[in-house]
UniProtKB/TrEMBL annotation:
Occurrences of domain ABM (ranges): 2-93
Name of the protein in question: Antibiotic biosynthesis monooxygenase
Classification via InterPro entries: ABM_dom (IPR007138), Dimeric_a/b-barrel (IPR011008), Heme-degrading_MO (IPR050404)
Alphabetized UniProt keyword annotations: Monooxygenase, Oxidoreductase
Stored PROSITE patterns: ABM (PS51725)
Membrane-spanning segments: none
Superkingdom, natural source: Archaea
Oxidoreductase recorded as keyword: yes
SUPFAM superfamilies tied to this protein: Dimeric alpha+beta barrel (SSF54909)
Any matching Pfam family: ABM
Gene Ontology molecular-function annotations: monooxygenase activity
Length: 103
């Protein structure tokens, strides 16, 4: 399994709008082969403007196939205003080495 993390730096005055944009623009990712789950992480402390959009996929091939779909292009078509962001986003991909869960 892989985790794709898109770290985005959002200006405080756009925080609510940013979250709503994600809530309403995920397209049809849930129906894509290999999709496991999506999480949008918001800052828990006031000293950061870092948000993290995480998608979990069964494989890198599944994620790459999603990025080549019309649904992906539609989900990313309506670009937000440039001033919504305080810095460039950072995309990282990690493979899950192991997992532990609570009871």
């Amino acid at each position: 399994m892989i985790v794709v993390e898109n770290r985005l730096f959002v200006a405080e005055e756009y925080a609510d709008q940013f979250v709503e944009r994600f809530r309403n623009s995920m397209g049809e990712v849930e129906s894509q082969p290999g999709f496991v789950k999506f999480e949008l992480l918001t800052p828990a402390r006031p000293d950061t403007d870092s948000y993290v959009a995480q998608t979990y996929w069964e494989s890198m091939a599944d994620f790459e196939a999603w990025t080549d779909t019309d649904a992906f292009r539609e989900a990313h078509a309506d670009r937000p205003p440039r001033e919504m962001f305080t810095d460039k986003n950072q995309l990282e991909v990690h493979e899950v080495a192991f997992e532990r869960t609570g009871e």
